[in-house]
Amino acid sequence: MPITSKYTDQQVEDILAEVAAVLDKHGASAELSLMIAGNIATNVLNQNVAPSQRQAIAEKFSKALISSLETKDQH
């Protein structure tokens, strides 16, 4: 069953393009970009999610991240 989102692809792509432009402007390496992404995720969880739900949502997020990766086996 496909995952549906309440956000349009265009909304996601527009924000992603802006974030990518900021990282590019600062010459952020892959390592720094991932550190920033991780810090953003942590801040969002800590500031917007009830403490009792943080662990579960972080686990779902990490599983979604892993499942979205392209691997050699998928080619």
Automatic annotation (TrEMBL):
<dbReference type="Pfam" id="PF07208">
    <property type="entry name" value="DUF1414"/>
</dbReference>
<comment type="similarity">
    <text>Belongs to the UPF0352 family.</text>
</comment>
<dbReference type="InterPro" id="IPR009857">
    <property type="entry name" value="UPF0352"/>
</dbReference>
<dbReference type="InterPro" id="IPR023202">
    <property type="entry name" value="YejL_sf"/>
</dbReference>
<protein>
    <recommendedName>
        <fullName>UPF0352 protein JCM19235_4294</fullName>
    </recommendedName>
</protein>
